[in-house]
Amino acid sequence: MQNSKQIDLTRNGKLELEEELNRRKNQDRTRIATAIKEAREQGDLSENADYSSAREEQALNEARIQEIENILKHAHIVDIIYVKVKYLDLGKEVDYEICGSESDPFHNKISNDSPLAKAIMNHKKGDKFIMTTESGKDVRLELLSIK
Question: Does the fold of domain 81-146 match that of domain 7-77?
Fold first, then answer.
């Protein structure tokens, strides 16, 4: 992730990251520190699986804390946009939520940087258009609603 790049998040996405950061800094750090202390008390650290596991968990937790802090430092709040598109070749209608970096394509939450979102943003309700996927395939769409 580039440090100078703006990261688009919805208000809810930012709140979720802030809550995760708080949990990791306060609850997880304390729990992991306790596990490390208890493992140290068991004796020889070179063959202590509990100690190794706790240290690994600590490293992963600290890395995630740094990642979240970087995201929040570069966060730009965006509004969620709800759209309905029709895939003309399939006759299938799909509702999407266009959001920031917290996209979840399996639940039809797409990033505002995705090819579909970029194509939609250049059109208005009722427009028919072609979107080219990242693999180079053209998809014919109709924008049924946008709000």
Answer: no
Does the CA dihedral 141-117-93-134 come out positive or negative?
positive
Worst-scoring range by mean pLDDT, 17-21, 41-45, 98-102?
41-45
What DSSP assignment string belongs to 71-125?
HHHTEEE---EEEEEEETTTTEEEEEEEESTT-BGGGTEEETTSHHHHHHHT--T
Residue pLDDT, tens place only, 106-122: 999 999 989 999 999 88
| CATH 3.50.50.60, applies to 7-77 | no
Return the domain boundaries, the chain: 7-77, 81-146
The answer to whether 109 touches 102, Cβ cutoff 8 Å, is: yes
> What would the CATH number be for the domain defined by 81-146?
3.10.50.30
CA separation for the pair 121, 97 (Å, rounded):
12
Q: Taking Cα atoms as reference points, which of 75, 85, 83, 72 lies closest to residue 128?
A: 85
DSSP 136: S
Q: Which residues of 92-109 are buried (b: 16+ CB within 10 A; e: fewer)?
A: eeeebebbbbbbeeeeeb
Tokens 């014919």 sit on residue: 140
**pTM beyond 0.90:** no
